[in-house]
Design brief:
Elements (H helix, E strand, L loop, with lengths): L5 E6 L7 H10 L1 E6 L7 H15 L5 E3 L1 E3 L2 E2 L12 H8 L3 H18 L4 E2 L13 H4 L7 H17 L3 E2 L1 E4 L15 E2 L3 H6 L3 H5 L5 E4 L3 E2 L12 H10 L5 E3 L12 H11 L4 E3 L4 H11 L4 H12 L9 H12 L6
Parallel strand pairs: 1-2, 1-13, 2-3, 3-6, 6-7, 8-10, 9-11, 10-12
Antiparallel strand pairs: 4-5
Length: about 325
Amino acid sequence: MTTATGATILGCEGTDLSAAERDFFRAADPWGFILFARNVESPDQVRRLTADLRGAVGRNAPVFVDQEGGRVQRLRAPHWREWLPPLDQVAQSGGDAARAMYLRFRLIAAELRDVGIDGDCAPTLDLATPGTHPFLRNRCYSDRVEVVTAVGRAVAEGLLAGGVLPVMKHMPGHGRATLDTHHELPRVTETADVLLASDFATFHALRDLPLGMSAHIVFEAFDPDRPSTCSPRMVQVIRQDIGFQGLLMTDDLSMQALSGSLGDRAAAAIGAGCDIALHCNGKRTEAEAVVDAAGRLSGAGLARAETALAARRMPEPIDMAALEVEFAALSEGRMHG
């Protein structure tokens, strides 16, 4: 049974946990943690850090990371594998893309679990479009719903088989955003019917996954006034039209697509129906405001958190060398058919 933890996932400042951070996390009791490149130095160091984070809250809290490959991977060479951007990987693997991406994320899962990380913010189910902002475009899998769906399912299954929780993003779809949400708030003007049949359809196909992440985007056809993260109407779309019943976390609340104080952003997101407020940069005063505003998990949110953690399992045994050989062959297009 999951205890009623804080309704937050928090980042830390550096490669080691300070005494002050340990005290803060003990009091804040976040549901989980997230790591970034600033927190990653070597395998032994990451193992110590993940153990210390869990020690601070006194339980086996999930620890997440963004390990997509390409520009967005926090664990890099020389200690970890380097990966092609997802769009390039899928294109290179052709008809074997789903299998190649399963293998890729099974290998990623092994690397993550080895250092105590058991959550990956993937698959990225955003549908690529001609206008997709460059910050996102080559992180997508395809401009075709059926390809994104098949590859996304394979990514999730590879992670789950390796004992890592997948987080599909960015719900209900980020591909039509022509601005970078780290800096600006995108507005999508496409009709509801088109969105439901395209951008939202990839998430509908994977609605059974245990965790999802919201998008800081305004969809004018549904709610012209608020980004999805802070919109009760858009959370209703995610829950009812898309049919996702898993744990819904926000994208990073410190991104500048959102307005207001960090406390205002967290309160708006939780009030809209998001279960977990995500704060990544490790800045204490910001994190304190998010913790205070987000409150604690309860009711349906707590139940969804329990269900998500129940999906975390011990990795299935694999022949790592054989997987690497098969992945290399698929990536080079030698195994089609």
